[in-house]
Amino acid sequence: MTKKYPLYIGILFIVVLVQEFGLSHLTLFNVSPDIITIFIAFISVTVGQKSGTSFGFMAGLLSGIFSGNMGLNMLARTVEGFIAGFFNIPDGSHATAKQKTKRIYGAIVTAGFCANSVLTAGYNPLAISPAYRIFVLGLIESLLTLILAVIVTRLFLRQSLAD
Question: What pLDDT, on the 0 to 100 scale, is given for residue 87?
Fold first, then answer.
C-alpha cells in the first residue's frame, strides 16, 4: 500500500464535494467539467489500474450519495478508473513530465467519455436521444474537462508529475 493513500482518500472527499456543490453548477449545454474524472485519471496513471478502479468505485459511491443515483455513478466511475488505468506509467519508467501529462490528458478524455456513455445508457433526464447525449454532449464534457485538467496540471500537479 502506498503511503500516499490516506492523502488521496482525503483529496477524494474534497474533490467530490467541489464537483457536487460547485462545478456541477457551471454548465454549458447542460454539461459541466468533471474534476472527479481528473482525479481518477491522475490516480490511475500514476499509481495503477487497480488503484484507479478502486478510487473510481469510491468516487462513484460518494458522488452517488450526494446526487441520489448511487448505483449508476459507482458503475460509471469504476469503468472510468479501469479505462484510465490503461494509460498507467509503470514505476521506474523514465517518462518525462511532458509524457506523463500527455498520458493523463489521454486518460481523462478516454475514460471520461466512456463514463459519460455509461451514465447516458442508464440515465436520461432530458429525454434526449442517446446518440446525441453520447457523442455531442459527451464530447463537450470531455473538452470542458480537458480544459480544466490543463489548468489543474499547470497549477497543482506540475511537481507531482516531475517526480
Answer: 93
Cα separations in angstroms, 103 against 44, 112, 137, 139: 10, 14, 23, 18
- What are the phi and psi torsion angles at 39 (to 5°)? -65, -45
Distances (CA, A) of 93 to 7, 52, 163: 24, 19, 11
Distance CA 79, CA 70 (A): 14
Cell of 127: 429525454
Q: Quick one: cell of 68?
A: 441520489
Cα separation, 49 vs 54, in Å, equals 9
Beta bridge partners of 28: 31
Cα of first residue to Cα of last residue in the chain, in angstroms, is 19
Q: What's the full length of the chain, in residues? A: 163
Low-confidence ranges of the chain (pLDDT < 70): 1-2, 124-126, 157-163
- Pick from 117, 116, 155: nearest CA to 32: 116
CA distance 114 to 73: 12
Written as nine digits, the cell of 70 is 448511487
Which residues face 31 on adjacent strands? 28
Angle at 126 between CA 123 and CA 129, to 5 degrees: 80
Distance CA 125, CA 156 (A): 34
